[in-house]
UniProtKB/TrEMBL annotation:
Family, per entry: Belongs to the nitroreductase family.
GO molecular function: oxidoreductase activity
Signal peptide, first to last residue: none
Protein name, per record: Nitroreductase
Domain Putative nitroreductase TM1586: 103-166
Gene3D superfamilies: NADH Oxidase
Disordered as annotated region, ranges: 153-172
Entry keywords, A to Z: Oxidoreductase
SUPFAM superfamilies in UniProt: FMN-dependent nitroreductase-like (SSF55469)
InterPro entries according to UniProt: Nitroreductase, Nitroreductase-like, TM1586_NiRdase
Length: 172
């Protein structure tokens, strides 16, 4: 599939079939994240792959009651390993969230190329996700995504036109 077709095809999926994802497919998706760029190539990430149905169910209240989290056969929690991240973005801030976001987006696009659905989940209660997944201090959950075969077709949402989101040579 052409890259631009993948970008257009990627939609937020909130209903999943329970069909398992072949291990080779999951490995290819994770490889896409592994190859993502990061500041100074520090790769300050850790991906928690949740396949246990009980663990996925425990994530539902931690993700503000979003039940579709537990429907997908896989959930990926993308975490930043703070001490591994470059701290000089813009001269003063950490690249950790940006780096992890880029890697997770690679994973999400790879999943779309494999015919799988995902949904970027940023609505979660950090302390509850930490507890469920035993995430240690110094590691921050940045976002989660279920990964699975869509149970129904997702509907595209309107996007702003390019003219509304860009400007040339200076901010206007």
């Amino acid at each position: 599939m052409d890259f631009y077709d993948v970008v257009r095809k990627r939609l937020s999926v909130r209903a999943y079939r329970p069909d398992p994802i072949p291990e080779e497919t999951l490995t290819r998706i994770l490889e896409a994240g592994r190859l993502a760029p990061s500041a100074k190539n520090l790769q300050p990430w850790k991906f928690i792959i949740i396949t246990d149905p009980k663990q996925r169910e425990l994530l539902v209240p931690a993700c503000r009651g979003q039940k579709f989290i537990a429907e997908a056969p896989v959930v990926i929690c993308a975490c930043a390993v703070s001490k591994q991240a470059w701290g000089g973005m813009g001269g003063y801030w950490s690249a950790e969230a940006v780096d992890v976001t880029i890697a997770l987006e690679h994973i999400i696009l790879a999943a779309a190329a494999e015919g799988l659905g995902t949904c970027w989940v940023g609505a979660f209660i950090e302390e509850e996700v930490r507890k469920v997944l035993a995430i240690p201090e110094g590691v921050k959950p940045i976002a989660l995504t279920p990964v699975g075969y869509p149970a129904r077709e997702a509907k595209p949402r309107d996007r702003k036109p390019i003219s509304e989101i860009t400007c040339r040579d200076r901010y206007e």
